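hey
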């Protein structure tokens, strides 16, 4: 009976439905808490990533044709300007080098440049001037004698009631030389035909002072001067001024000031009156 009972239990156990194995229960781990700041930074990074991606995938902007042409034009102009500046600098350098070479080749002038006066025969000034210029050329004195000058002035002379214009030598019988005086130049000039001597001592010529020479050169630039020849004792008529219409006799002539002292009869007495040359007329 026990065997049967055990057999019966065995059959019951066989007839009992098999239950599926129970699933393994996983141990749930507690969620890690992320600080709020790190969470926000992570969200910002996530938001920025698509923007960067979009930026990378953005197609290149096309430059308008007009703007591109303008940029190329500006570049060409800048290149031309740079080339022009370089050319100017090169030309300036070449010119400066040429000037330096010219100064190096230029002979040094020794001695002081001064004005001297030579004496000749009156009326021969122009001929002597030409002879000195020929000596300078033939003897190679161009670096020692620089100017040969015969000072003249234009004057207007009223003679016999007629107006005459003529050129007058300011210093008859003299010729001026701007030169460096040494033994050679002194000898060659004084040996020139027509030259009598240098003004100065026998040992050495005396140069003209700068002040006197400035006065001479200044006179060369003056306008024509009126020259009227009067002599003491001549009868004249005053044609201008407070004594206009009076007649008298020339008592004194002052050519430097261009004035006359005329004796005019006023109230029965001869009264000396000063009159300019141009205010008096000879009585013919």
């Amino acid at each position: 009976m026990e065997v049967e009972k055990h057999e019966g239990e065995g059959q019951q156990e066989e007839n009992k439905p098999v239950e599926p194995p129970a699933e393994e229960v996983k141990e749930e781990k507690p969620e890690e808490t992320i600080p709020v700041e790190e969470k926000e930074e992570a969200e910002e990074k996530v938001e920025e990533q698509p923007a960067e991606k979009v930026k990378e995938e953005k197609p290149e902007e096309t430059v308008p044709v007009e703007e591109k042409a303008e940029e190329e034009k500006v570049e060409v102009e800048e290149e031309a300007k740079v080339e022009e500046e370089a050319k100017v600098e090169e030309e300036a350098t070449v010119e400066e080098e040429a000037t330096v070479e010219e100064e190096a080749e230029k002979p040094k002038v020794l001695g002081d440049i001064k004005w001297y006066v030579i004496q000749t025969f009156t009326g021969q000034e122009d001929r002597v001037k030409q002879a000195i210029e020929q000596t300078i050329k033939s003897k190679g004195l161009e670096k020692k004698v620089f100017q040969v000058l015969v000072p003249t002035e234009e004057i207007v002379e009223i003679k016999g009631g007629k107006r005459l214009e003529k050129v007058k030598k300011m210093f008859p019988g003299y010729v001026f030389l701007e030169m460096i005086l040494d033994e050679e130049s002194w000898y060659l000039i004084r040996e020139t035909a027509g030259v009598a001597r240098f003004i100065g001592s026998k040992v050495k010529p005396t140069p003209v002072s700068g002040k006197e020479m400035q006065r001479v050169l200044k006179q060369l630039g003056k306008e024509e001067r009126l020259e009227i020849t009067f002599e003491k004792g001549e009868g004249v008529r005053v044609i201008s001024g407070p004594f206009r219409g009076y007649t008298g006799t020339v008592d004194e002539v002052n050519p430097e000031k261009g004035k006359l002292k005329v004796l005019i009869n006023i109230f029965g007495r001869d009264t000396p009156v000063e009159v300019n040359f141009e205010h008096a007329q000879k009585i013919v």
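The domain at 113-226 is CATH 3.30.70.940 (Alpha-Beta Plaits). The two ends are 208 Å apart (CA to CA).
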